[in-house]
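Chapter review: from sequence to fold.
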Amino acid sequence: MESNSVSPMPTEMAPIAEFEKTTPTPMEDAVPMDDLPPPPTAVSIAEEKEKEAAAEAEGHRHYEDENEWGCGNWLEYTLVIVLATILLLGSLGLTLFWVINYHGGFAWQENPRKQFNLHPVLMVAGFITFSGFSILLYRICRCCRRIYVKLLHTVFHALAIPCVALGFLAVLDSHNLADPPIPNFYSLHSWIGLVTMGLFAIQFVIGFFSFLILLCCEGATAGFRSAMVPIHASFGLTTFMLAIAACVTGLTEKVMFKLGDDYSQWKEEGIVVNVLGAILIALGILVSFAVRSPTLKGDTRLSVTERL
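The token string follows.
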């Protein structure tokens, strides 16, 4: 019997996937576990923080030692500040002595001659004494925070404003109510005084706006306020010098009108006025030296204190 054999049908083979024929990247050498650093512990982290704090404190101490004052620096600081304070108060006291003893004291519009006596006293009080202390505050208050010094600086200038205003009104009334009336604003003294009052008003407005009002947005205005500091300081010192010039010319004008030819005879009132003028000039020298001297500046020491 013949058996029918069925030959199997040839099946199609699946195509062999082609792989990228590149050399495989060799594996990196495995690091033995024994060579790995131990994980940080709480004790090691605390020790590291203590070392960083000690190094930072040591750096601050070195910084403070570099800026530490010696005996000569403190002697210079004490001499300038104490002498300037005595002269600031002494100029006002000597002005009061001159007006009361040689001009009969004070009055208002009922006596224009005595009303004029308010002018030198109030102008010296406002432009010299209060303004001088406001400038020296940045050298006197070395250990105070800067914002407190700024507030005191503003307070002293604010105290000077009514003094200057009343002194200006007193001289205008005394001239206009005199019989016969005295002309106004014709002398060099009056011109210097007007310039001084104008600069003082501009300085106060700009300083109040720039260094107090703008502190509400301190970060955004830091660059502007930093740029304004040298300008404000320079014009403040200029205003103080102009005030001294106005006082000296005014004193000379007044004593020459009253004494006339007797001024050259070494009269007692003339000597008092000359001493007062010399005190004002000495104040100009001392205050400008205190402001400009690098030794008396307290910026570095204040920054160290704040950092510590």
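Two observations follow directly from the output. The chain has nine helices and no strands. Residues 1-6, 60-66, 299-308 have pLDDT under 50 and may be disordered.
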